[in-house]
Write a structure and sequence with these properties.
- A two-stranded antiparallel sheet has the order 1-2. A two-stranded antiparallel ribbon has the order 3-4.
- Strand 3 and strand 4 form a beta hairpin.
- The chain is globular.
- The protein folds into two domains: 235 residues, no CATH class; 71 residues, no CATH class.
- The protein has 375 residues and is mainly alpha-helical.
- Bound molecules: fe (ii) ion (FE2) (2 copies).
- The site of one fe (ii) ion has 4 residues, from loops.
């Protein structure tokens, strides 16, 4: 009996391994290339150090340890909750019958190919902050090595200063009326809000990124991050705070979206969200097991930098492309592939999109041309 199930597990793992070997090996080399760029990029180094400093300020020792561990090793251990092909198909079918994914979502959109689910696909330092490009945009926000650290650090600064501003504007009085907040939940929620971008957005040989699928109507990274928090045993209130990053928990259709994020992630993590304490049954429906709290709004509002950084990234990449073409005579092939992509990755990692865009606003495109020529 035991021998039979070991054989079954080995066969399934072998199958998965064969399918995904090419992608994982390809990603490994390219992720290392991104890691090397990030290790030399001052914005990424400073940002990662700031994030670590803030984690150290989490007062609850269990939450501090869990947050530190997930940032240090963002391994997709949720994948080990359904190691067999059959079990993964079961997860997929549960998500489908709950209306949480469309028919187009594949198994590999949830179980992103990795060699070993106890190890991170790439480090927090090397990961990008979003998709590479889209039909509408030449570049997503922070889509370069070190982008995730920069994005997370900015959000953290925004969230912590928002706490101070709320406190100034709505001071606590002796009756307890005014503004009070648990900064532990704000720090943990923001630090981890995009942690599975380390998994979802891995590097291709041509310097661009693998594409993300949608779960529960949002980017898979969000749901997989919540699933990972369930699996690692984060307190329910921290899981809810992190899940609020994409939408607020105020009673509205948006609150229902957060319910579906927590539900989809629970299916993937193989936990019951009601007994875990993130969701509760209400009038034959599921609801979040918490009031709409200030921490949820702060985690959500702090994730709004993409408006400016997204614009800066697309504009800057457009200008860099144009300069390489018209001033340096690069071919379309070079502009659409490895040569331009890795150059762009390097420049954005060294200066950030906002840094490059503001350099352009102040000194014009000649300043950007000098940067390209120096590479
Ligand atoms: Fe996100
Ligand atoms: Fe984000």
């Amino acid at each position: 009996m035991f021998k039979k199930s070991v054989k079954r597990i080995s066969m399934a793992l072998l199958m998965l391994f064969t399918i995904t070997k090419a992608q994982t090996e390809d990603s490994l080399t390219n992720n290392e290339r991104a890691q090397k760029i990030a290790e030399k990029a001052r914005p990424a180094i400073m940002a990662a150090a700031y994030v670590k400093q803030q984690i150290a300020k989490i007062r609850n020792p269990q939450l501090r340890r869990l947050t530190e561990e997930l940032i240090t090793n963002p391994a997709p251990t949720y994948q080990a909750k359904a190691p067999l092909q059959k079990e993964r198909e079961q997860v997929l079918s549960e998500l489908r019958s709950a209306g949480l994914i469309t028919a187009e979502v594949s198994l590999e959109g949830i179980y992103i190919p990795v060699k070993d689910p106890t190890k991170a696909a790439q480090s927090f330092l090397a990961a990008p902050g979003s998709y590479y490009r889209s039909a509408k945009s030449l570049a997503g926000h922070h889509s370069y090595p070190g982008g995730l650290a920069v994005h997370t650090a900015y959000n953290l600064r925004a969230g912590l200063s928002m706490i101070e501003n709320y406190k100034r504007q709505y001071p606590l009085d002796t009756s307890g009326s005014g503004f009070s907040v648990d900064p532990d939940l704000v720090i943990c929620g923001i630090v981890l809000h995009d942690i599975m971008k380390t998994l979802v957005f891995q590097w291709k040989k041509d310097g661009s990124l693998y594409e993300e699928q949608q779960i529960a109507g949002t980017g898979a990274h969000h749901i997989l991050g919540i699933a990972e928090m369930y699996v690692r045993g984060f307190p329910a209130e921290a899981v809810i705070a992190m899940a609020s990053a994409h939408d607020p928990t105020a009673p509205s259709p948006l609150r229902k979206k957060v319910v579906s994020y927590l539900r989809a992630a629970a299916i993937i993590a193989r936990v019951d969200p009601v007994s875990y304490g993130t969701l509760k049954a209400k009038d034959d429906e599921l609801d979040i097991a918490s009031e709409a709290r200030p921490e949820h709004f702060i985690v959500h509002l702090s994730d709004a930098d993409y408006h400016y950084s997204g614009h800066a990234a697309a504009a800057t990449v457009g200008i860099l492309r144009e300069l390489a073409k018209t001033e340096l005579g690069w071919s379309d092939e070079a502009l659409d592939g490895e040569r331009f992509n890795w150059l762009r990755n390097q420049l954005l990692a060294s200066h950030t999109e906002i840094g490059l865009y503001q350099l352009y606003l102040k000194k014009g495109s000649k300043a950007l041309l000098r940067l390209i020529s120096s590479k």
